[in-house]
Specification:
This protein is 28% helix and 26% strand. By secondary structure, the protein is of the alpha/beta class.
Length: 555
């Protein structure tokens, strides 16, 4: 359960807790909508969002959200209803989310790269009747069973002068709408709806993750859960109304959602928003917009460092760069510091914890390290067999307790029960990650208990992909494993046993797989094998295959 609404959330005991940070914070009891409302009343004419040459003030952003809430209310959206949000980072994404919260609704953030089958699952599982969807995905969403759709063409209304950067291709689609569906431009003409009475314990967002079975599960987060990291992230990063931050992580991802959207909104900072990652666009925007804070994945930094146009002069405005998803290679971490003068501050978190539970202190960071526990987080290492706490230096499962820990999985009571354990009368979430704590209180990641491919910070669950791959007429058996990748951290490799007489090439199979699932989930390489090793129960021993592949690649 969340902490008492008005109680301060203390910092854990840490030998190297930053001197410039408070030891405790008080989590706001207000809703996420109130964060935008307060900033808009404090700084009405200040730029809230810069988006490819289009500047939106806090007053304008709040007005957009309020008017859009009227359209949602007219569709029957009310407190507790789930509403799909599936489009790229944009002012529309931000306004739509706050409109949903104004009504007391629950945001269901989905990656803007889904196929009809995937839309169909989420529509049914979350009970979605209404959704805000990117124009290029409209047909897929409708084929998946979405009822009322508000369709967003992100290229609409952008100025010719886009600040010296190129707008991503493919975001100018104008689909023919079915009866009842509307464009964003029409929806924001509605009169504002009355603001709902929202409590800090009410649900506000439900990002989906996947378990070892491969079935996506909605992580139920309250306003209290999310505010703990929205406010905590602002304090930790010293974010103020004078800051300009760069949003490159997608908002459907919990780290992008909290660190690149909610923390800046909480303080009244200006957010420079990118719809899609592009290293040259990022270089130009950091320099020309005077970006001071940037939360990312290590793979984005690696890609930026590979940009031949990059120089130290491009990075002089930066004061804080942090992220997670994959460890920063030591050599590249040194290269980054040489160019920027800054350490890359790694962190750790999960969908179930609304991003950060650990972060490296700016005054004393360690590379390839998760960092120290965040405000209010009690993190421990337990033995996998006895479930007893282990001493420093010993490897076990990372378990977590804190104000940002979710309430459980949507309509999955058994999975929710399995996700938690009791230690000394305190409820802890089982992360499924192996790690250890050193003698200075820093945590380190070792391996995963859960099967997962972490591709550039995007989680790919092998069991889910395998289920889809079996639909190919040539496939008899399939196993998906994670192998090292210099750019993305990891990539998915499919090991396939074909049916007798069947024939398909690697390129043909990969192309087919990308029609069956989101591109980031599809295997990036395929190996055809005669058989797959199995254990006593008949299950494929995937870990054996993964370890062999890693040994082959030297990783």
């Amino acid at each position: 359960m969340p902490a008492t609404e008005s109680s301060p959330v203390a910092a854990p005991t840490a030998r190297y807790w930053p001197r410039t940070k408070p030891r405790s914070i008080t989590v706001p009891v207000t809703s996420l909508y109130d964060n935008l409302s307060v900033s808009a009343h404090r700084y009405p004419d200040k730029a809230a969002v810069w988006f490819y040459g289009q500047q939106t003030s806090y007053r304008e952003l709040l007005s957009m959200a309020d008017h859009f809430s009227g359209h949602l209310a007219a569709q029957g959206v009310q407190k507790g209803d789930r509403v799909m949000l599936c489009l790229q980072n944009s002012p529309q994404w931000i306004a739509a989310a706050h409109a949903i919260w104004r009504l007391g609704g629950v945001v269901i953030p989905l990656p803007p790269m889904l196929g009809p089958k995937e839309f169909g699952f989420f529509v049914q599982d979350a009970g979605l009747r209404v959704g805000i969807v990117a124009a290029e995905l409209y047909q897929h969403a409708k084929a998946g069973g979405l009822g009322h759709a508000v369709v967003v063409t992100l290229a609409n209304g952008l100025p010719e002068d886009r600040g010296g950067v190129a707008f991503p291709a493919g975001l100018d689609a104008v689909p023919e709408l079915q009866d009842g569906d509307v464009t964003w431009e029409t929806a924001v003409l509605a009169a504002p709806a009355p603001q709902a009475q929202v409590q800090s314990g009410d649900l506000c967002v439900m990002p989906y993750t996947s378990g070892t079975t491969g079935f996506p599960k909605g992580c139920m987060h309250t306003h209290h859960n999310v505010q703990a990291n929205a406010a905590g992230g602002a304090f930790w990063g010293n974010v103020s109304s004078g800051d300009t931050t760069l949003a490159t992580l997608p908002y459907f991802h919990v780290t992008g959602f909290t660190s690149s959207l909610l923390s800046p909104m909480f303080t009244g900072a200006t957010i420079v928003v990118m719809a899609r990652w592009d290293r040259e666009t990022a270089r130009v925007l950091i320099r020309e917009q005077g970006v001071m804070g940037w939360t990312n994945t290590a793979t984005m930094v690696v890609d930026l460092l590979a940009n031949p146009n990059l120089s130290s002069a491009d990075l002089v405005s930066l004061k804080l760069v942090n992220g997670g998803g994959a460890s920063m290679p030591e050599a590249l971490g040194r290269r980054w510091k040489e160019l920027s003068g800054l350490e890359f501050l790694e962190g750790y978190g999960l969908s179930e914890t609304m991003a950060q539970t650990h972060s490296n202190p700016q005054e004393r960071p360690k590379l390839q390290c998760l960092g120290i526990p965040f405000y209010g987080v009690d993190a421990r290492i337990i033995d996998l067999d006895t479930l007893q706490e282990l001493p420093q230096g010993q490897t076990g499962e990372i378990v977590l307790s804190g104000p940002q820990v979710f309430q459980g999985y949507w309509n999955r009571p058994e999975a929710s029960a399995e996700a938690f354990l009791d230690l000394g009368g305190k409820r802890f979430f089982r992360s499924g990650d192996l790690g250890y704590m050193d003698d200075e209180g820093y945590f380190f990641f070792v391996d995963r208990l859960k099967r997962m491919v972490n591709s550039g910070g995007m989680k790919v669950w092998p069991a889910e992909v395998e289920a889809a791959l079996h639909a190919h007429p040539a496939v008899q058996e399939a196993c998906v494993i994670a192998v090292p990748d210099e750019r993305m951290g990891e990539r998915a490799r499919a090991l396939l046993v074909l049916k007798a007489g069947a024939s398909v090439t690697e390129a043909e199979f990969i192309e087919w797989a990308r029609t069956q699932m989101a591109h980031y989930k599809a295997p990036r390489e395929v190996r055809f094998v005669d058989s797959l090793p199995k254990g006593p129960t008949g299950k494929v021993t995937w870990r054996q295959l993964q370890e062999a592949a890693r040994a082959e690649l030297g990783g």
